[in-house]
Design goal:
By secondary structure, this protein is an alpha+beta fold. It has nine helices and 14 strands. The strands form four sheets. A six-stranded mixed beta sheet has the order 4-3-12-11-10-9. A four-stranded mixed beta sheet has the order 1-2-5-6. Strands 7-8 form a two-stranded antiparallel ribbon. It is globular and about 60 Å long.
Length: 387
């Protein structure tokens, strides 16, 4: 259905009132499923997200000086509370990093925030999280340890990645400013310098509300999207990448030593839910993420780090060191709606990242172009996906 002029005006008025850029649904891209209020991972009660975005300099890449196009994203499962959650993770292709996953597999719990940054800043952010824990007094002086979860994607095409510009202060900023509600998308946080499927990528989010028996549950997703070949880009079933193969291609003025081949890159996906799932069930949720990535054109290529983590905010008393507890568990035979919600939210979050992302020029004048909204909508009409 063609959007009326009045409806378009109303939608953009609402977007402006929240300081939001247009999102995929706002420009007319259709998706399946019902979203939460914010259509974001923050629709899962208690989840908070914060960013630190670093954009400085222009022109020639001078090691250690810039240009800088990078940042940090923080996802706090229960906000600023030290209360671990059931979790698990899955890797489609392991050309990437997510620290702390060995203990998640072993223990079944996520005990720290989830941080996302660029490839070369994982160590700095990991150390900062430990210091942040100490500052918050989230430890016991006699015996305490934890393994921060820090994931990455590679922004060397636009960012002075070997200049190591992310500091502990950036990690603190992302953690301390984390909040609920509407989230910024595109060129923000860890997604600042990322590219996706031939266009500018970055940070995106989405959510789904599902009803199982007499209860409603929320699935929320946040992605840091930096993967894929342009000719594989698919939106609402339409081969957008093939149609736009000669449109606004990544502009390489002077390839840096870190220049990646087409198809290289990565995607990190964080899935949150308030459904009462155990760690083995959350592994199953994380394993459905590739289905959503595949719908938009991901292929898990050799040079891509496609790593996903899922957690549940249910059972707030589950983490105990000595006391026995009883927990609620969703039966496997009724878990399918959560699988479907995960696939739908991942697909939309990736497209939201691309819709929100703006054209960015980085090191050596290299330029990643924003996905052209009007051309995409024209193609969806051409293929009868919208009227």
């Amino acid at each position: 259905m063609r959007l009326s002029a009045w409806l378009i005006f109303y939608l953009f008025t609402q977007i402006a009132s929240y300081g939001q850029k247009p999102r995929a649904r706002d420009i007319g891209i259709p998706f399946e499923g019902n979203t939460g209020k914010y259509n974001a991972i923050t629709d899962v009660y208690g989840v908070e997200v914060g960013y630190s975005t670093i954009i400085t300099g222009n022109g020639k890449n001078i090691l250690g000086k810039g240009p800088v196009r990078t940042g940090v994203t923080a996802i706090l499962p229960r906000g600023k509370k030290n209360n671990p959650v059931y979790a698990n993770w899955y890797s489609l292709n392991g050309n990437g990093e997510m620290t702390g996953t060995t203990w998640i597999t072993e223990s079944g719990f996520l005990e720290t925030p989830i941080m996302i940054t660029n490839t070369n800043s994982v160590g700095a952010v990991r150390d900062a999280v430990l210091k942040w824990f100490v500052d918050k007094h989230w430890y016991k002086e006699d015996f305490w340890y934890t393994y921060p979860v820090v994931a990455e994607t590679y922004d060397g095409g636009l960012n002075d990645i070997y200049g190591f510009h992310v500091t502990a202060e950036n990690a603190y900023e992302a953690l301390n400013t984390a909040g609920t509600g509407f989230l910024k998308e595109g060129n923000v946080g860890g997604g600042t310098g990322m590219m996706c499927l031939g266009f500018k990528g970055g940070t995106g989010t989405s959510s789904r509300i599902v009803k199982i028996k007499d209860s409603s549950y929320t699935v929320g997703v946040l992605v840091q999207s930096n993967f894929g070949r342009k000719n594989n880009l698919t939106i609402a079933g339409v081969p957008v990448g093939i149609e736009l193969k000669d449109t606004l291609n990544y502009d390489i003025k002077s390839p840096p030593a870190s220049y990646r081949q087409e198809g290289d890159g990565s995607i990190i996906v964080v899935v949150a839910t308030d459904a009462p799932l155990l760690p083995h069930q959350l592994k199953r949720i994380a394993a459905r993420v590739p289905l959503g990535v595949g719908k938009v054109g991901g292929r898990g290529e050799n040079g891509s780090g496609d790593i996903f983590i899922a957690f549940s905010t249910a059972n707030p008393d589950a983490f105990q060191r000595e006391k026995f507890v009883k927990v609620d568990v969703l039966p496997n035979d009724i878990i399918n709606p959560l699988f479907e919600a995960t696939v739908q939210a991942v697909e939309e979050a990736i497209i939201n990242a691309m819709v929100a992302a703006e054209t960015m020029e980085g090191v050596n004048g290299n330029k990643a172009y924003a996905m052209p909204h009007k051309l995409v909508i024209d193609l969806l009409r051409k293929y009868n996906r919208i009227k």
